[in-house]
Amino acid sequence: MTTLRFIDLFAGIGGIRIPFDELGYECVFSSEWDAKACETYRANFGETPYGDITKVEENAIPPFDVCLAGFPCQAFSIMGKRQGFADTRGTMFFEIERILRYHKPRAILLENVKQLTTHDKGRTLRVILERLEQLGYSVKYKVLNALDFGVPQKRERIILVGFLDSTLAEGFTFDFVKKPYDLASILEDESQVPRSYYASEKIREKRKASVIGKEVFYPSVWHENKSGNISILNYSCALRTGASYNYLLVNGVRRFTSRELLRLQGFPDAFQIVVSPQEIRRQTGNSVAVPMIREVAKKMDALLKRR
Question: Which of 27, 38, 67, 73 is catalytic?
Fold first, then answer.
């Protein structure tokens, strides 16, 4: 059987790519503008992504079968200003459209924040779907939660899957068996956690005072929202780029380590860390839950490899 080829657009640190590598697909092109993300990508995949996709001509990209793209989500995110296509980051979808129009790959997998479904009263998503349909793609989409795929992180993301062959699209479903998660399974041994990850005594005492009367259990993640309220959870709330440094504290006392942050996104422990903890925090906040993508990829693969 011919090896199926894919491209990895807005690649970040390669979270969407990993499951397709596992399935034996060949990556023929990747693109990511952030230099530090490219360092992580290069260390783990042996290639440096091209930079700004707006400067890459369509015909410079080799032929491929599947387009993967976790296109920039800040323009649609609840944490941002939600300007959508009025934000230049929101227009990155049209770069995907440009490449799809030229290459017409058999399938696409796009990922974004769940707020894309409601942005501009649903008009933004309708534009995206209409553009894809005009290119000949039959598209299905659904908001999935990483918690349902075995990782202890509540992370809801819209996944769009499309096929040029409408019969393949008809055969695709977002029905998955929920997998249990276990916070303890991603935590490092406390004796191995550097003291630099521990919050100051002042912050720790403040956390303790704010949970008086609440049920406290261990292990747990103490989440502080924008109002200053503390929730004690057996999972992490969504990792976020640019969030308060101490908004998530393990057992109310320390921040997640770099390895724990990667585990919260389902990255394997063999994944190499070659940048600072601050950069890993930013990179995982921008990444995807690998196990969630893995289940979607398996379903796509089964359809694409039908004889």
Answer: 73
Per-residue tens of pLDDT for the chain, all 307 residues = 689 999 999 999 999 999 999 999 999 999 999 999 999 999 999 999 999 999 999 999 999 999 999 987 544 444 444 454 454 344 788 899 999 999 999 999 999 999 888 877 888 898 899 999 999 999 999 999 999 999 999 999 999 999 999 999 999 999 999 999 999 999 999 999 999 999 999 999 999 999 999 999 999 999 998 888 999 999 999 999 877 788 999 999 999 999 999 999 999 999 999 999 999 999 999 999 999 999 999 999 999 998 5
Q: Which residue type, as a one-letter code, is found at position 34?
A: D
27 in active site = no
Task: Give strand ranges (E) for 56-181.
Answer: 66-69, 107-113, 138-145, 153-154, 156-163
Helices (H), 78-227: 92-103, 123-134, 166-171, 201-210
Cα–Cα distance between 298 and 304 in angstroms, integer?
A: 10
Instruction: With CA atoms as reference, report the closest residue to 296 among 158, 200, 184.
Output: 158
Residues in a beta bridge with 237: 154
* Total-model pTM: 0.93
